[in-house]
Specification:
The chain is an alpha+beta fold. The chain has helices spanning 8-29, 95-118, 132-153, 161-167, 183-209, 212-219; strands at residues 4-7, 34-35, 39-40, 56-57, 60-61, 65-69, 80-84, 126-127, 130-131, 180-181, 224-227. Keywords: Fertilization, Membrane, Transmembrane, Transmembrane helix. Belongs to the LHFP family.
Length: 228
């Protein structure tokens, strides 16, 4: 018989797991990892031959995505073009960024799987006689390691040609040059920290759902158990 067990700690772990997965996914798909040096409107990737308005703007560059000003459309509100600069994986600007994409993608896939499974932990608390919370916590810890590897490798690619177009010739591995870090990079770091918090907190969720109080209510024949 299925017992629906809802506790404050298990619900908090579920919500955090979902938030972390979405945060990492959104950061990965964003172009706001690097904010390039200010350029006159009409320039693109360091090329300022198109003329146009001299109102400066700052293009942004992600792992495989970028946003830049469309030439000759400086008077339009929709003058910024965002999209992938690489048509396939091999065209990602740096080998380090390719490795970053792989590690982040692996970590995000694990986090999304855990987030999906966490919704069902209200009804299923064990799998193959092992606590589903502990299994998910272990997977979140592994995902966190993948994310850390990706974030460590990412700055090593700042010296690639694509990055120097945005950040100037002084940009190199682990040196930003004229660029600054965007919200997506900080979101990825924050999500990584929360991933390890979720991994640790999964043990508290398991304790809460297997407590003596829960067992007493199961013995009383209750199918829906809600505990603070």
């Amino acid at each position: 018989m299925c017992h629906v067990i809802v506790t404050c700690r298990s619900m908090l772990w579920t919500l955090l797991s979902i938030v972390v997965a979405f945060a990492e996914l959104i950061a990965f798909m964003s172009a706001d990892w690097l904010i390039g040096k200010a350029k006159p409107s009409g320039s693109e990737d360091g090329d300022n031959r198109t003329g146009g308005s001299q109102e400066p703007y700052r293009p942004t560059l992600g792992i495989y995505w970028r946003c830049t000003r469309i030439p000759h459309m400086q008077f339009s509100r929709r003058d910024t073009l965002c999209g992938p600069y690489a048509e396939n994986f091999n065209e990602i600007a740096s080998g380090f960024w390719q490795a970053t994409a792989i590690f982040l993608a692996m970590g995000i896939m694990i986090l999304c799987t855990v987030a999906f499974v966490s919704v069902f932990t209200m009804c299923v608390q064990s799998i193959m006689k092992k606590s589903i919370f502990n299994v998910c916590g272990l997977l979140q810890g592994i995902a966190g390691l993948f994310l850390i590897l990706g974030l460590i490798l990412y700055p090593a690619g700042w010296g690639c040609q694509k990055a120097t177009n945005y950040c100037g010739n002084y940009a190199s591995a682990y040196k930003l040059g004229d660029c600054s870090l965007g919200w997506a990079f900080y979101t990825a770091i924050g999500g990584t920290v929360l991933t390890f918090i979720c991994a640790v907190f999964s043990a508290q969720a398991e304790i809460a759902t297997s407590s003596d109080k829960v067992q007493e209510e199961i013995e009383e024949g209750k199918n829906l158990i809600c505990l603070l």
